[in-house]
Design brief:
heterodimer; A: alpha/beta; eight-stranded parallel sheet; B: 262 residues; alpha/beta; TIM Barrel; 11 helices; binds zinc ion
């Protein structure tokens, strides 16, 4: 049995590493969830990143959620500064800029390799609505920055309204705090109607859920994420390694989709 | 032999299940090298016991024994214990499943005493749902690991499997505590329980011989737990025990032949 196990382990790791995982959801800072192995600092993250097969990552700093957004953004940018395999996600709150200042603020973040925007409307007590966030969402859309929001931080109707009001915005929903697939009847319907709605994969863990999404909608609107270091990235990774999909689809989800999204960011 | 010790048949109304057919399940098992799965039909837990029973028997037959079953115990049924007996009299039923959270009864509620007695008489394991206290889902308190201590103490001869090993961080810690206290308590990895370092923690706390691979298929995808187990920072021997060695021993599957025709 151990020979079989060793063979399975080697095969899994080989397949996983061949996917060149580009992870949308990696975190540093004060932990968001308790874990058995604590990873808070960048050096701790890097020490285990390779063991888990995460080749590249978008790093978010929990200070942006738990403390101040501006401080969190500085911390995230500092953390990735000397590693080109990493980019940062920034957290925005409505008062960070006004009107046209949004473009300047976002450009200053892009200059420090921010490539993704996160909003936490519930935790930070604001409305995710086109009317209220017009200037912010316009600037984010114009600069082609993908927007990531947890489903537990807003409502699906609000997500739909933003997707419709900003059809050029890449809106990625990430499942945190509740099983994302419990809402699959809702997101199946929204995915039909909102071509700019995307899903991050770490919580799409219902039986055959990801395979089914690929079968129904193709492979271009799902982005690999793991919510590491709170969760084990191998759970989301093996869904891809052994996914009932073509290698083309597998690689789209594992890294190409995110790579293409980030290549669109206006970093001029 | 790789054995998934915690599976389901059927679907729940809660969300859209893409495909719950036995054929697809067998195909998934074949692709992943899972030789056997032990399932509790969701109907048996959710108020359609008869349909659950019928489809369980069908699955055992259709799968040539690759799918084995738990008898679901629903305390709301007036003939709940007879239902369990009826299952255990049939070939392919190898354990009993209880779900305190779904049924709104604490795991140490007197309603469960007859099931423990029966499990002792028939020498079959009990699989129970277990979870952490949760603000979002208050009924999880019924299955908090510490709640099992009462019956574990009373029935040391009954092997208990705590499904989901306590579910979330606080539950995992409590599940490990219970398993350290009672050596007949086992912990399965089923569900969306992916806390980083979980497998290493459980192996260190209770030993690899009491940790079991489980998926929660048709609910949760078995590839997620397999990925975690294969890459865990524990020995190959430990992985072999978790993947199937322990379940083989627990369910007495050493001698049972699989029908390779089907
Ligand atoms: Zn289950």
């Amino acid at each position: 049995m151990t020979t079989l196990v060793d063979r399975l382990v080697a095969q899994y790791r080989r397949r996983r590493d061949a996917l060149e995982l580009f992870d949308l959801s990696c975190w540093i800072g004060k932990p968001l969830e308790p874990a058995f192995a604590v990873v808070e600092r960048m050096d701790q993250f890097k020490a285990i990143q390779c063991r888990c097969g995460i080749r590249r990552a978008v790093i978010s700093h929990t200070l942006g959620l738990l403390g101040g957004a501006a401080e969190g953004n500085r911390a995230a940018c500092d953390a990735i500064a000397d590693d080109n395999s990493l980019v940062a996600a920034a957290t925005l709150v409505p008062e960070l800029a006004r009107g046209d200042e949004w473009t300047d603020y976002l450009r200053s973040l892009i200059a420090r390799r921010v490539r993704v925007i996160r909003l936490f409307p519930a935790a930070h007590n604001f409305l995710l609505e086109p009317d209220y966030l017009h200037d912010l969402l316009t600037a984010v859309t114009q600069l082609r920055l993908p927007l990531v929001v947890w489903q537990t931080q807003t409502t699906w109707p609000a997500i739909a309204r933003v997707c419709r009001a900003y059809p050029e915005l890449h809106f990625i929903v990430e499942g945190v705090g509740r099983k994302l697939f419990y809402d699959n009847r809702i997101y199946h319907a929204l995915l039909e109607r909102c071509p700019n709605l995307w899903l991050e994969t770490h919580n799409l863990v219902n039986y055959l859920g990801l395979d089914h999404l690929v079968e129904r909608f193709g492979s271009e609107r799902w982005v690999f994420g793991s919510f590491f270091p709170y969760l084990d990235p191998n759970a989301a990774a093996m869904l891809l390694c052994e996914g009932r999909m073509s290698d083309e689809d597998r690689h789209n989800i594992a890294h190409r989709n995110l790579q293409r999204l980030l290549a669109e960011v206006d970093a001029a | 032999m790789i054995i998934d010790a915690h599976g389901h048949l059927g679907r729940s109304p809660q969300f859209d299940f893409p495909d719950v057919s036995v054929t697809t399940m067998l195909d998934m098992m074949f692709r992943l090298g899972i030789d056997r799965i032990i399932c509790c039909h969701l109907g048996m837990l959710q108020g359609d016991w008869q349909q659950g029973f019928r489809e369980s028997l069908q699955a055992v037959g259709e799968s040539g024994g690759r799918i084995l079953c738990y008898a679901g115990f629903d305390p709301a049924l007036s003939d709940a214990l007879d239902c369990v007996r009826r299952c255990l009299d049939c070939e392919g039923f190898v354990g009993v499943k209880i779900h305190p959270s779904m049924h709104g009864r604490y795991a140490d509620d007197p309603c469960y005493d007859p099931v423990w007695q029966l499990a002792a008489e028939r020498d079959v394991p009990i699989l129970s749902h277990s979870w952490d206290i949760s603000e979002q889902n208050p009924s999880q308190k019924y299955s908090f690991p510490r709640r099992f201590a009462e019956y574990c103490g009373r029935y040391p001869e009954v092997k208990l499997i705590l499904g989901h090993a306590g579910g979330r961080f606080g539950g995992h810690v409590a599940a490990a505590e219970l398993a350290r206290q009672f050596e007949h308590v086992h912990l399965d990895l089923a569900g969306d329980c992916y806390t980083w370092g979980l497998i290493e923690y459980l192996v260190e706390q209770v030993g690899a011989s009491r940790v079991l691979f489980g998926s929660d298929m048709t609910w949760i995808d078995p590839r997620t737990q397999l990925g975690m187990i294969l890459d865990a920072d524990v020995s190959s021997d430990a992985k072999a025990m978790i993947l199937g060695g322990n379940a083989t021993r627990l369910f007495g599957l050493e001698k049972s032949e699989l029908n390779h025709e089907s």
